[in-house]
Amino acid sequence: MPHSTSAPRLSDAGWPRARAGATLTIDLDAIRANYRTVRGLAAGAECAAVVKADAYGLGAARVAPALEQAGARTFFVAHVDEGIALRPHIAPTSRIFVLHGPLAGAEADCVRHDLIPVLNSVEQIRDWRTLAHGLGRTLPAAVQLDTGMSRFGLSEQDLASIDAEPDGWRGIDRRLVMSHLACADDPSDPASARQRDRLLAMRACLPAAPLSLSASSGIFLGRDFHFDLVRPGAALYGVAPNDSAPNPMRPVVRLQARILQTRTVGPRDGVGYGLTYRPTSARRIATIAAGYADGFLRHAARDGRAWLGTQPLPIVGRISMDSMAVDITDAPEPLTAPGAMLDLLGPQHGVDDVARGAGTIGYEILTSLGHRYHRAYVADGAALT
């Protein structure tokens, strides 16, 4: 899809609403508002946008143009092929950084599709340098430093090794020097300050280049962590940056699952695999069309809830691959007949709430949402499908 300066053009919206068991609504206005919120907090730094994992499962082809409208000009993905898929949906002048860098042999694809690799190892630096020499030109790249997370990036020894080589950094145009915080979601953890100080010390071994340290949670640690560029990801999609304060981000997603069947069960009955739920009195049970194949973990039923408006309805029994059971006894019968929709994610119960009930984090909930929904995108107050 060619880039357009008009409103984002939408491609396939998933299954037709009438045939889908659930509808996932994604609020592009909320994503843009969240971008403006974090950009305001990091005033003075460029605010990029992380759209890896298909914009955390919400559809990068739709989300990235919306973020571009809000002012984003730099995007981050994890893999080369994510960058290749994203490139036609944003302006040719917008930058795409590939966090994992290229696998050996994929360097030319970065050049071909105008992607900027994040070089994480001595081997990646050498391969990128070799390609630059072969093309007879300087190639842009970011360099990642390991400041204490022990995941990606160059150590002090790696920097010394590159500096000792005859070609060193020749042919590599360092557009960014970056690292990543391990404990930014806990503002009281001193590890973040240690990583910041180590980044500054290691940066002194490199020629001058813009610095980047903070993703979503790090932005909320304050100006000392912003440097030249910040990289919000999960916060754009409504995930709380930390648990120490109310979530300042607007909710982005709503997931409504259809009631397929209802029945009344009594004390002699069991519900679901293993018959783990046995009521002590007569209960009305609805089977709804979402399960662990749709991103709801099998063990999450212990504390899980569906919602009818503001009314919580407990999930009972084990979650199946394609369905789950909900106790609708206390809900009005006309509103819970087959075909009615219950909220699994929504205004009363967001991704962080679902994550707590499942013993995980909002990132995992978002990126686990399946592809069997009808997807409805909302922008400028209107539904785009």
At a glance:
By secondary structure, the chain is of the alpha/beta class. Helices cover 25% and strands 23% of the residues. The protein has helices spanning 28-41, 52-56, 60-70, 80-86, 107-112, 122-135, 156-164, 191-203, 216-219, 351-358, 362-368, and strands spanning 22-27, 46-47, 49-50, 74-77, 95-98, 116-119, 139-144, 172-178, 211-215, 229-231, 253-265, 283-288, 305-308, 311-316, 324-327, 341-345, 374-379, 382-384.
Strand content: 15-25%
Helix content: 25-40%
Q: Unreliable runs, pLDDT <50, ≥5 residues?
A: 1-12
User: What is CATH's topology name of the largest domain?
Assistant: TIM Barrel
What does this structure look like?
The chain is elongated. Helix 1 crosses helix 3 and helix 10 (351-358) packs across helix 11. With 385 residues, the chain is of the alpha/beta class. The chain folds into two domains: 28-237, Alanine racemase (TIM Barrel, Alpha-Beta Barrel); 253-349, Beta Barrel (Lyase, Ornithine Decarboxylase, Chain A, domain 1), CATH 2.40.37. It is built from eleven helices and 18 strands. Mean pLDDT is 93; it is low at 1-12. 25% of the residues lie in helices and 23% in strands. Strands 1, 11, 12, 13, 14, 15, 16, 17 and 18 form a nine-stranded mixed sheet that branches.
Task: Describe the secondary structure blueprint for this structure.
Elements: E1 22-27, H1 28-41, E2 46-47, E3 49-50, H2 52-56, H3 60-70, E4 74-77, H4 80-86, E5 95-98, H5 107-112, E6 116-119, H6 122-135, E7 139-144, H7 156-164, E8 172-178, H8 191-203, E9 211-215, H9 216-219, E10 229-231, E11 253-265, E12 283-288, E13 305-308, E14 311-316, E15 324-327, E16 341-345, H10 351-358, H11 362-368, E17 374-379, E18 382-384
